[in-house]
Amino acid sequence: MTDSIDRISLATRLRNNFLTGLIICAPMAITIYLTWTFIHWADSWVKPYLPDRYNPEAYLKFAVPGTGLLIAILFITLVGFLGRNLIGRSIVSYSENILNRMPLVRTVYKSTKQIFETVLKEQGNSFKKVGLIEFPRAGTWALVFVSTDAKGEIAAKLNANGEEMVAVFLAPTPVPTAGFLMFVPRSKLMLLDMTPEEGVKLLISAGLVTPEHKPNLADAMTAFADLPAEDEAVSVKTSKAR
């Protein structure tokens, strides 16, 4: 009887050790694999256009991974530096005028540029807040990322009744790369304290990885104000006794 219990205990410990090791190794392996794949993808795009005299692999007997990625970063940084001065802005403006005259290309260029300007703009407020809305019906809540206030024609049409509308992005689980753009009244949007990164983790894990909630001072004061009078008296007596 004791031997069987020992065998069961040993099997349980081995299983727990395996699961612990899997939790430690799997994220590291996936991260290394994705990083390595991205580096090779960048190298495959840049290295074919790199002259041999500037390619370190032409002088070395082994491959140097990451060379293409480093050159791409330096090139993009240089273009950004030139685009911030007068000559660079003139060149960019001239290039944009050429693209805007092409029927199909101008649509793709304008849409892509608008997306990148909205997402990467330093002063932008896009996707800096996470909230909850009742979806798909009342009583059930879905996690959304707050984009911006409704603007333009949409704001003129939807704000006609005096209710301010907000654009939110409803992402699916577990791959939040596609979803729905929705306009909801601000009063129907419940903002959360979690960051967008924590919201993405919550979505990808299907609710298994829940960020720790630390109530702010306003929430604590509200909870204290909602206490019954007897509970407040007990808390005061307890604090005095301490």
Describe the 3D structure.
This protein has a 5-stranded antiparallel sheet with strand order 4-3-2-1-5, covered by helices on one side. Helix 2 packs across helix 3 (86-100). Helices cover 55% and strands 12% of the residues. The protein has 242 residues and is of the alpha+beta class. The chain has 2 domains: 1-112, no CATH class; 129-214, no CATH class. A hairpin with a 6-residue loop joins strand 1 (129-134) and strand 2. The radius of gyration is 28 Å and the shape is flat. InterPro entries: COV1-like.
Q: Give helix and strand order, one letter per element, not per position.
A: HHHHEEHEEEHHH
Rg, Cα atoms, Å: 28 Å
| SS element count, helices | 8
Helix % is 40-55%
* Adjacency order of strands in the biggest sheet: 4-3-2-1-5
Count of extended strands: 5
Q: Strand-residue fraction?
A: 5-15%
- Number of separate domains: 2
The structure class reads alpha+beta
Regarding quaternary structure, what we see is single chain
State the end-to-end distance.
52 Å
Largest sheet: 5 strands, antiparallel
What is the average of the pLDDT values?
79
Unreliable stretches: 230-242
Shape: flat
Helix-strand layout with pairing:
Elements: H1 2-46, H2 67-83, H3 86-100, H4 103-120, E1 129-134, E2 141-149, H5 152-158, E3 165-170, E4 180-185, E5 190-192, H6 196-204, H7 217-225, H8 229-241
Antiparallel strand pairs: 1-2, 1-5, 2-3, 3-4
Features:
55% helix, 242 residues, flat, 8 helices, disordered C terminus, five-stranded antiparallel β-sheet
Task: Give me a quick take on this structure.
The chain is an alpha+beta fold. Helix content is about 55%, strand content about 10%. It has two domains: about 1-110, no CATH class; about 130-215, no CATH class.
